[in-house]
Structure formats: C-alpha cells, structure tokens
Amino acid sequence: MPFAIYVLGLAVFAQGTSEFMLSGLNPDIARELNIPISAAGALTSAFAAGMIVGAPLMAVLSLRWPRRRALLAFLVAFMLVHVVGAVTSSFAVLLATRALGALANAGFLAVGLATATAMVRPDAKGRATSVLLGGITLACVAGVPAGAALGQALGWRSAFWAVALICLPAVFAVLRSVPAGVPATGTPDDRANDRPAGARGQLRALRSPRLLVVLLLAALVNAATFCTFTYLGPLITEVGGFSEDWVAPVLALFGLGSFAGATVGGRMSDTRPMLVLVPGGIALLAGWTLFTAAAGNQVVALLLVFVQGTLSFAVGSTLITRILYAATRAPSLGGAFATSALNVGAAAGPALGGAAIAAGLGYRSPLWLSALLVAAAFVTAGVAQAVRSVRAARGMRASAREDVPASGIAERPRA
Prior knowledge:
Blueprint: H1 3-21, H2 26-33, H3 37-61, H4 67-87, H5 91-118, H6 125-154, H7 156-177, H8 188-193, H9 199-205, H10 209-229, H11 232-239, H12 247-268, H13 273-294, H14 298-326, H15 331-358, H16 365-411
Helix pairs in contact: 1-5, 1-6, 1-7, 2-3, 3-5, 3-15, 4-5, 4-7, 5-6, 5-15, 6-7, 6-12, 6-14, 10-14, 10-15, 10-16, 11-12, 12-14, 13-14, 13-16, 14-15, 15-16
C-alpha cells in the first residue's frame, strides 16, 4: 500500500476528530459564548449538513484540478477555519467555520477516496478505502476522547488548536508523497488529461440503478450505526446501569470494533464482498435485535458494543467499496456520492433516535430503530433484486419472441 494513502488516513483522522469532538465540548462552548445548549448543538448540525451538500459540490468544483492540488486546498482550508474557530468570540463566526470546515472535509474525503483507489491495483480498492475509513474509526477511538479531555483541561479552544496542528504535518506529507498528477492506474481520461472526466460525463455514469441502490443501502446501514452510537452514553448508564465513568471506555470499545470491522471488511470487499454483506448483514440485524432485549445485562451489552461496531463498519465499508467499484467511470463523483451517503446516514440516524427518545419511547428505542433500518436495507436489496429478475425475464421473453418468426421463416419448406 503506498505511503501516501496512510497520509490521507492521517488527515481523515484529524477531520473525523473535528466532526465528532463537539459532543463533549458543547456545554463549555455554550457557557463561554453565553448561548443556549441547543444553539451549541447547531454546530454539529451545521457540520453534518455541510458534509452532505459539500461532497458532490466540492468534487464538481475541483474536477479540473490535479488531485494533489485539490487535496492541499481542502486540507489547508480545513486547518485555517479551525484556527479562526479557536480565536473567535462570536457564535455566528464559529457556526460559519463549522459549515466551511465541513465543506472542506467533504471535498477532501471525496477526492481522497478517488485518489487512494487510483493509486492501487484495480482489484485493491477495498484495502485503500479501509485505510481512509480507518482514520474515521480511530478518531472515534482516540481522537474524540482526547479532544474531550483536552477541552476539559485547557478549554474547548485547545481542541480546535489541536485539530489544526494535526493537519499541519498532513499538509506537508500530502505535498511530498501524493503524486502531482493522477496516478497511472487512473482512467484513460485521467492519464491523458491529468484529470477525471467532466461533471456531465461522470453524472451520466452515476445513473446506474444498481449504484443508486448501493448508495441507499450505505445510507441505511450508516443511519443504523449512528442512531445507536450517538445515544450509547445514556443507553449504558440509564438502561445498562453503568456509572458515568464507563461512558468513555464503552465509546472507545465501539470505536475499536469499528476499526477492526473497517480493516477486515476492506480486505474482504475486494474479493468476497457478498460474504461480508449477506452473513454480516444478517448478523448485524440479529445483533441490534439482541441488544434491544439484553441492554440491561452488562456483560452482554459490552460484548455487543464491540460486535456491533465491528459488523457495522465491516458491512458499511464493503458497501462504500462497492460504490467505488461501480463508479469506475466517475471516480471523483463516485467518491463524493459515497461520502454523501455516509453523512446522510450519520445525520438521519441520530435525528430518528433523538425523536424516538423525545417521544418517550426510552433509551432502548435507538436500538430497535437500528434494527429496523438494517431490516429496511434488506427489504430494499430484495426489492431491487426482484425488479432486476423481472426485467431480465422480460428481456429474455422479448428476445425469444423476436427469434421465433425469424427461425420459422428460415425453416419453412418451399412449395
């Protein structure tokens, strides 16, 4: 695996830390800036919205740039808005930096996925993808708890400075290690023009119904993941009976499982994707269902936290890899739409879980919602397969009807 891909993973680690670290910093931000805690929560919403919109938008805007230039532009912009966020005393400015940081993050991840998969053999996209997704999972394991601890010790601004400082070596490493042009393993347009095909050509390539189905499946599975992960803290304390001191270790345990799942899933998705998607998806559905019933058992709950983190990211990373394989004619926008699918799920899942809790359904409700979302993914896949089978059967019958007259004329004896 080229060293440059691990450099991209380091940058994704910094960006993932920024995306999730506010969950432990919002109370301090609200207190210092004299705003309601609900307003501080808008900082997370702004980042999620920026990620969803930003991935395809930034990918289109950067299509005519060499990929190293695009990566550097997005990474430097991400670093600078964190510097501004660390020094501002205005909530409006801080909110703007979160939205702009999300746009830069989305653009970097979209271009980074296209760059990483173009730097490896055509049959190694899964392994390259797992390195970048591994940066996100490591952010959950180490970056977010470290950011929260740093914020508690030195104030929330120190966490913003830390993210900016982590980006600095990544900037120099991208400059030194990522090739200036598109690697030779890119598409013919890449090699000839030092850039992928234009936006219209890539959008046409993304109209495949099968690709759209996989995007929907990725969004549903990720929504299931973050529906429970977002409320894992109150779940284990209010239902599982753990003390508050257990929250950080349990979140880290889920993150460790996520890292293991992304790593294993990334390696298997290149050669045996259905072995991950079908048995892994069934196990994921069974796990969320079992977790709903056994959340009050501390031993079982701890085991399932790790198992569900592993299965969620194994299945999720495999779906992302399948998107990239299906979008070989649209490498930049394929990565962008994969990024958007992930973040649609990351925004929809917590919203659904929060609505269920607010409706008085209890802290177990995100668990059964996660099970329903995975079940919806299976139903979607089944309907799509049925539609493909019906269309294939109709095509075969139409072809047979066209062949029969021709065959009859050819074989009819002359008078």
